[in-house]
Structures are given as C-alpha cells and as structure tokens.
Amino acid sequence: MNTGTRSKDDKPWGGGDVSRARQEGISAAGWTNPRRIRIQAFEPVPTPASFISERQLMAEPLLIAQSKDPQYLLPKMANLHGLVAGATGTGKTVTLQVMAEAFSRAGVPVFAADVKGDLSGISQAGKDNPKIAERVKKMKLEGFAFEASPVTFWDVFGEQGHPVRTTVSEMGPLLFSRLLNLNDTQSGVLSLVFKIADDHQLLLLDMKDLQAVLQYVGEQAKALQTEYGNISAASVGAIQRGLVTLGQEGGDKFFGEPALNIDDLMQTDSNGHGVVNILASDKLIRSPRVYATLLLWLLTELFEKLPEVGDPDKPKLVFFFDEAHLLFTDLPSIVADKVTQVVRLVRSKGVGVFFVSQNPLDIPEAVLGQLGNRVQHALRAFTPKDQKAVKAAAQTFRTNPKVDVEKVITELEVGEALVSFLDEKGTPEIVERAMICPPRGQIGPITPEQRAELMKTSLVAGVYENAVDRESAFEILKGRAGQAATTGAPQQQGQEQPWYANLPNLGLPGQSGGGRRGDTLIEAMSKSAARTIGSSVGRQIVRGVLGSLLGGSSKR
Ligand SMILES: Nc1ncnc2c1ncn2[C@@H]1O[C@H](COP(=O)(O)OP(=O)(O)O)[C@@H](O)[C@H]1O
Ligand SMILES: [Mg+2]
Fold it and tell me: How far apart (Å, rounded) are the C-alpha atoms in residues 252 and 243?
C-alpha cells in the first residue's frame, strides 16, 4: 500500500510504516498480536518527558479545518456534542470521516452509521490524488500522511458487518411502539403486554416471544381483565400486523441473542487508536423509522450502561448520527422529549453525539441548542424555505465581523465550511470560513473483498455470527400449551399453580415435574438474571432508559 505523499518536503511521520504494521498486526493475529503487546510491555520505563508527550497526545486538540488559523476540535469539549450540516455533496461525510479519524488517532472509539457505504473507506489508507495534494498544499498541512483507521463493521442484517442484536425487552415498549408506528392506544396495549410478560416472567427476547405473548394476551384477554383492565382485540391485532411488517423490513433479525455488548464498541487497537465502528446502513435506511429507532436505542443503551464520568479529558465514545433528520421526522413529542433528555444526559457518560444533517432546521431547537461544535457546509438559497434555513443556520453562530455568514453559506465550496468549535471554557469560538482537512483514509467505499477480510480479522469475529435461541416466552408458552393439551392441565392464568409448574424441575415453589429441558432453563434463567432480568428473578425486567425515564410500567 502506498502511503506516500506528493510533495517532497512532506515528512511522512511514520504514516506509511505505522499503517502497514497495523494492517499486518490486524491480519496476522487480530487485535491481540502477542508480539506487539510484549514489545510494548518491555519498553523502557517511560521518562517524565514521554509521560508528558503521552498526556499531550491524549488530549491533543484535533485539527479539523484551517482558515487563516488552524481550527481545532478539543477532545475535552467533544461531549458537548456537535453538528455537521450542509446540502448534499458539500462535504459532510468527508468531514465526518476527518473527525472520526482524528478521534481514532486520539484513542477515542467512534460509532458511525454509514448510510451510503462511503464511510467504509476510512478503513484503508488514502492514495495520492491531485485534489488531495492540492488541498494539502493549500492548507500547508505539514507531515500529512495517508493512514488507515482500525474499523469494526456492523450490520443489522449480518451481511456487511457483524450482526447487531438486542432483545425485545431491552428495546422496551416505548421504542418498540415507535418501531411499529403504533398510535397511543395501541402503544398503551403494548406496554401492558410487556408488563404482563414481566409479571409472568416470560422472557421477551426475539419477535417470536413477543408474538407468542401477544397471542396469549389476546386469547386470555378476559381472564387478564380483572388485573390489567380491558385489552382491546383491535389493538392486539394492530400490534400483530405491525410485527409482521417489521419482520418484512428485516426487523426480526435485530431481535435475539447474543445481544450487542456495548463494551465491544469501545475498543482501541494495539497502537492505542480508537476503533471506528461502522454500522452499514444503506439497506437499513430504506426503512427510516427502523433506522432512526435502532440508533436511538443504541444511544439510550450507552446512556444506561455507561458509568458517570463527568467531563473527561477526552470522550469515551463519539457517536455520529448521519441523516439525522430521519430521527426527528414524525417523532411523537413524548419520544422527542426523551431524545433531548438522553442527548443532554449522555454527556456525563463521556459520550459525544454529532448529528449530521442537511439542514440545521431538521433538528429540534431543544437538541440543536445542545450541539456545541459546529461545521456548516454550503446551503442552497433557491426557495424561500431555503432562505429561511440559511438565515436560521447563520443565527446559530457566534458572529465574526469579518464573515458575512448568511452570504458565505451559499458560496462555500465543497469541503469548505463555516466552523465554530468550543474553546477550553466551552464557549463557541467566533465563526470562521475554513477549509476542511483532507481525510487520511480513502474517500469512498471499499470493495466487498476488503470488507470480508476486515470482518474476518476483527476483534469480534465469531462473537455475534451465530444467533442463539434460548428458552424464552415463545418456548415456554408453546411448552405450556403442549402440556395442557396432553395432561389436561389448566391453561388459564390466575390458577393456583405457577406458570412454571409444568416445566422441568428447578426446585421452584409449587413445582413438581422434572425433565429434559432443565439445563436450558437453568442456563436461561441464570443468564437472563445477569443480563435481562436483573439481580433477582421476579424483579422487573429491565426496560430500557426510555421506559424508566418515563416512569412507565417499569417503575411500579
Ligand atoms: N475535506 C475534503 N477533502 C477532500 N475532498 C473532499 C472533502 N470534502 C468533500 N470532498 C469531496 O467532495 C465529495 C462529496 O463530499 P461528501 O462528503 O460525500 O458530501 P455529502 O456527504 O455532503 O453529500 C467527496 O467525495 C470528495 O471527493
Ligand atoms: Mg454524505
């Protein structure tokens, strides 16, 4: 791989060698090349000087753009979030790439949804090309070198990356209602269904489980009425139809196990560079509601699972949300409020969220107001609506007497932008017209072969590939129905016998039988105790942050 630069006085600061070494390190032995680790471990005891340089490296300002002065994004301020806006083709994705590369080099893992597949190029070192050379020269970027970033690919469909899954339970009724596009009444019934599953300790892992519980609730609506109130058959039917549609959109693939462990998104490679997690979203985006809900789920998951860290020197993870307008389109206000809240709260978990969108007006004001670091690419001003957007975008910047923002926004060239990052005090810098740095990685998509190779050697290769279908609501209800049919045992809820009475003997109170499924169920219960139910069986099934923030069914 040629990682040289064009101008002869450029100092390749090890870009070529480092990059190649990393590539070899990855392909030879994954991320855990023992030789690399040993070499690092036996390095001379660091002198104070190298301590200092390492510290500086950790929180070193990230050069993103250049006006007459360099424009730095401060890692310490990255959890005050950001916005990259601009019309199509103005350079948003490349700006995202430049930022992601800079975070990665600073040791910060990144998560980004790749809507058009063009972000995948970040995994390869860029190649000489007159346009890049010109940009490097114009910006006087000394020591610019092409370099690949370590990447893990993810894909809900398991095709272009490692499968991303969660359980129905962890998605929670609120986000699930959004996935199914339910109205308020239907959504209320879905919450009840989750609650009934909770109360009866029926694990909701995959779509089958939810289907099974829905069917059960539908059939037992009368018996359940005293405890849970009226459950409308029409609503149950609507939810069932919604599930079918979601399945057709591929949503069924998303639910099941092994569920994503968010620690797997927060890795660094042997060079200390943050791993860039790329969610292949070209197929997913065809169903914008599903796309937006899944990313929202991920954000809430991060919020829920990460510890408080206050304002760290650099973020724990930076989350890029491309095509962010989809998140807010037709979003019920109750969910929109929660998005605002999660964006605000996730900051103290050390997570920076950067929205990438065509127009700042796509983002609700309450969220927009929280996005401290701004890069505004060109906007068109053809229609009155365009002009309104330009005005609005201009007003979001701290004014610079030398820059007529409203005028400049419409004149910016590709890869040029109005830039305002936060200073050390968290105050926006005055806006500058600036050139965005060229990316160090390749611009544009990689080949399927390159992708396959990277997937084979990734940190999580083999961890998520095979879905596991353990004992959960579907199997339990099916088993119960079967038992009932053969033994004539009562099927109805609310009997003296607990629901698990007919299951293999686990030593649970009121249980008599024994049998072949014991292991799976014990295993299921201990596993689920750890990850889904919480510390004790019988406790509320964890419901996802939106549920708990809402004080819904999980907060009785
Ligand atoms: N910072 C940059 N350095 C070099 N080329 C750039 C830069 N920004 C944009 N470009 C060029 O412009 C093209 C379009 O940019 P892109 O980021 O894909 O636009 P958008 O995401 O806004 O639609 C890129 O393919 C690339 O050739
Ligand atoms: Mg783009």
Answer: 8
3-state secondary structure 411-444: HCCCCEEEEECECCCCCECCCEEEEECCCCECCC
* For ligand 1, atom 7: residue with the closest CA: 415
Ligand closest to 377 (CA) is 1
Any ligand 1 atom below 6 A from CB of 90: yes
* DSSP, residue by residue, 183-245: -HHHHHHHHHHHHHHHHTT----SHHHHHHHHHHHHHTHHHHHHHH----HHHHHHHHHHHHH
Share of the chain above pLDDT 70, in %: 76
For residue 18, pLDDT over 80 is answered with no
Q: Quickly list DSSP for 365-396.
A: HHHHTT--EEEE------SHHHHHHHHHHHHT
CA angle (516 as vertex; 511, 520 as ends), nearest 5: 85
Q: Does ligand 1 have an atom closer than 6 angstroms to the CB of 135? A: yes
pLDDT digits (tens, 9 = 90+) for 288-314: 888 888 998 999 999 999 999 988 999
Ligand nearest to C-alpha 98: 1
pLDDT at 478 (0 to 100)? 83
Is the minimum distance from the CB of 46 to ligand 1 under 6 angstroms? no
Chain mean pLDDT for the chain: 80
| pLDDT tens sequence across 242-275 | 999 998 888 888 999 999 999 999 999 999 999 9
Instruction: Tell whether ligand 1 has an atom less than 6 A from the beta carbon of residue 165.
Output: no
CA 294 to ligand 1 centroid distance, Å: 27
Is 482's pLDDT higher than 80?
A: no
Nearest-CA residue for ligand 1 atom 3 is 438
Of the listed ligands, the closest to the CA of 91 is 1
Cβ-contact 473, 212 below 8 angstroms: yes
C-beta atoms surrounding 449 within 10 Å: 8
Contact criterion met (CB below 8 Å) for 439 and 101: yes
Segments making up each domain of the chain, as ranges: 15-164+261-287+372-446, 168-256+473-555
**Confidence (pLDDT) at 487:** 53
Closest atom of ligand 1 relative to the 439 alpha carbon: 3
Length, in residues, of the chain: 556
317-357 pLDDT per residue, tens: 999 998 888 888 888 887 888 889 999 999 999 999 999 99
Most confident of 39-48, 174-183, 287-296, 520-529: 174-183
User: Would the pLDDT of 99 be above 70?
Assistant: yes
Query: Ligand 2 centroid vs 87 CA: distance in angstroms?
Result: 9
Ligand 2 centroid from CA 91, angstroms? 7
What is the distance in A from the centroid of ligand 1 to the CA of 414? 6
What's the DSSP call for residue 84? E
Query: Mean pLDDT throughout 488-516?
Result: 41
Give dist(CA 512, CA 409) in Å, integer: 74
